[in-house]
């Protein structure tokens, strides 16, 4: 869900949306941290993607969103991946986090001249719109949902980290 849908913009808007999702997110905090440790991924980033993709489950119908194409808290697209586990399970979070990591590694290979932080942010954008959509650092969010996916997720992650979603 984009911040534009709530008539908000920028980092403060992203963080306000994360705050709105916190009560629902707390239900999954233990799993998020467990998967983060196992996959060596910052739990705040996992929480931020959950917040962005499903508002911590609030917008899902029987675990599905995105017109029936996205599955689970992190909205794995069934057109490109075969979802595993229940929509709110450790298996789901592990699979989705592995997809995120794969995208980050693909961006690292595609843009070796980018800093690790730029590659990571590119991987977040690619999680939403695919590696081929990320054509430059300046415009990496162009073509993502709301044209703000990477920036929004990073802002939400900063907020979730301040709430204890960390390794």
TrEMBL record:
Enzyme Commission designation: 3.2.1.17
Keywords, ordered alphabetically: Antimicrobial, Bacteriolytic enzyme, Glycosidase, Hydrolase
GO terms for MF: lysozyme activity
Domain of life of the native organism: Eukaryota
Catalytic activity: Hydrolysis of (1->4)-beta-linkages between N-acetylmuramic acid and N-acetyl-D-glucosamine residues in a peptidoglycan and between N-acetyl-D-glucosamine residues in chitodextrins
InterPro entries: Glyco_hydro_23, Lysozyme-like_dom_sf
GO annotation, biological process: defense response to Gram-positive bacterium; killing of cells of another organism; peptidoglycan catabolic process
Annotated active site: 53, 66
Single GO cellular component term: extracellular region
Family named by the database record: Belongs to the glycosyl hydrolase 23 family.
The name this protein goes by in its record: Lysozyme g
Organism field: Triplophysa tibetana
